[in-house]
Amino acid sequence: MKALAAALVLALSAALPAFAGPCTPSDIVVKFATVVSATDNPKGIAAQIFADRVNREMAGKVCVIVYPDSTLYDDDTVLQAMLQGDVQLAAPSLSKFEAFTKVFRLFDLPFLFTNLAAVSAFEASPAGAKMKNAMLSRGLTGLEFWHSGMKQFSANRPLVWPADAKGLKFRIQPSDVIAAEIRALGAQPQSIAFSDVYSALKTGVVDGQENTWSNIYAQKFYKVQDGITETNHGVLEYLVVTSTDFLNSLPPAIRRQFLSILHQVTVERNAAVTQVEAKSRAAILAAGGHIRQLTPAERAAWVKAMQPVWAEFRADVGPENIAAAQAIDKRLAAQTRGDGE
Predict the structure, then answer these.
(1) Are the CB atoms for 87 and 43 separated by under 8 Å?
(2) How far is CA 330 from the centre of its chain?
(3) Cα–Cα 20 to 30 A to 1, which of 15, 121, 171, 222?
(4) Taking the alpha carbons of 253, 254, 259, 265 in that order, is the dihedral positive or negative?
């Protein structure tokens, strides 16, 4: 009986809100679920800075609790939990919204964006801003785009030319675009949860993966790979998302302040991602990881190999969105070269 009573107490305790740290019973408690570390990943850092600011500036009104490293939900389950009211904020990578909209497939098209500056400019454009409202009819509201960085390939053997990937198994996020990208290389895509990637690489369940410098470093993928090829072939973006019902339930003044803080943190942290990524890249080298840089000819071969993927998904993402992204990327490249528009 004592054991049963103890178990009942634990169960009841688990069902009650956890008013940890600055939270009080009078606060609107916002659970922010992420799959990454809160200390060495751009998304995790941004989430914690946002929580700290809300808890300081909106004390007594709103309290944000960040749950890092998939301790609450992973990105494959968090959106359904959000619609059920079990979590209020998340920032999944854009490929996780496949069941809700196809428009974010744009960001997975290989070699569409040259760098994060072009990504930022597109997201701030009318075309990019419109995308955040693509899931309103499904009960989700996009709030802000967060950068993670440009993606690189790694494998258990050297990747220099596209043919080097042939026959390998690559871990990917559940994205039809990325799956097509891997198949264009003659390789096999396998969707595996982010939290399981290290063990999958280590045990040979998969041979390679694609990710940002910060994720490769924080998750120690470089320790179980032959090396990393600096392809910058794609961009890993997140969308801070909430349920439309939760957002509408906030009193107007609280909602405005909450969203204002989120926007300020977004601008600040997106601007810092390039530095975070460079630091992670340097840390990989310092830890003994091997990085391969492509020659112009080698890079051109990768671009050519994956270019057919664009045509396959043009209708899903909208030709006008591809055109807008290309125009922005071209304009910024021209400005960088100093040759005007």
Answers:
(1) no
(2) 24
(3) 15
(4) positive
